From TrEMBL:
Top-level lineage group: Bacteria
Matches recorded under InterPro entries: DinB/YfiT-like (IPR034660)
Organism annotation: Ilyomonas limi
Name of the protein described by the UniProt record: DinB family protein
Length: 165
């Protein structure tokens, strides 16, 4: 392997780690761990959204980023209507688990595609300058922001058990 190929593989590995693990931020799995089902639809202290709405927004936006990245015939969603659900709470635990499963499988699909591209810097032919690198960073940035919102909601609901690292 040449140095450029080694650097590309290392970058892909680092991006995958950034998207899945916790370092300077909480991972998705840690952020949603052990949330009481009855708290998913609560909007404490006048906050205009619930944990469920945040999780669904992550799911929808992440799926949109994946679709854009792999689909040359991508159809843009309407902002903000298509990115947010109106329901404050999931209908049942099966709906919650399905949403979590979709987030995890779509993230895995994104990372799998990322690992197989030749050049993470190359602009997509169907975009306006976006690349796999840019979309990975957008995905990380977006998910991290909303995970912070979930943690804030959990603190307001008094169900967040933070650990000092």
């Amino acid at each position: 392997m040449n140095n450029q190929n080694n650097a590309s593989q290392q970058l892909k590995k680092e991006l995958a780690t950034l998207l899945t693990k916790s370092h300077a931020h909480v991972s998705f799995d840690d952020a949603i761990k052990d949330i009481p089902f009855e708290d998913l639809g609560k909007k404490p202290n006048g906050v205009p959204y619930s944990i469920w709405q945040q999780v669904e927004h992550i799911r929808i936006a992440q799926k949109d980023i994946l679709d854009f990245s792999v689909n040359k015939n991508y159809r843009e969603l309407n902002w903000p209507a298509d990115y947010w659900v109106e329901e404050a709470a999931p209908t049942d635990e099966a709906a919650w688990n399905e949403s979590i499963g979709k987030i995890q499988s779509d993230l895995n699909a994104f990372i799998e595609c990322l690992q197989h591209v030749d050049d993470v810097y190359a602009p997509f032919k169907h975009g306006s300058g976006q690349s796999w690198l840019r979309e990975a960073l957008v995905l990380f940035d977006h998910n991290s922001y909303h995970l912070g919102e979930i943690i804030a909601l959990r603190r307001l609901l008094d169900n967040w058990k933070s650990e000092v690292r």
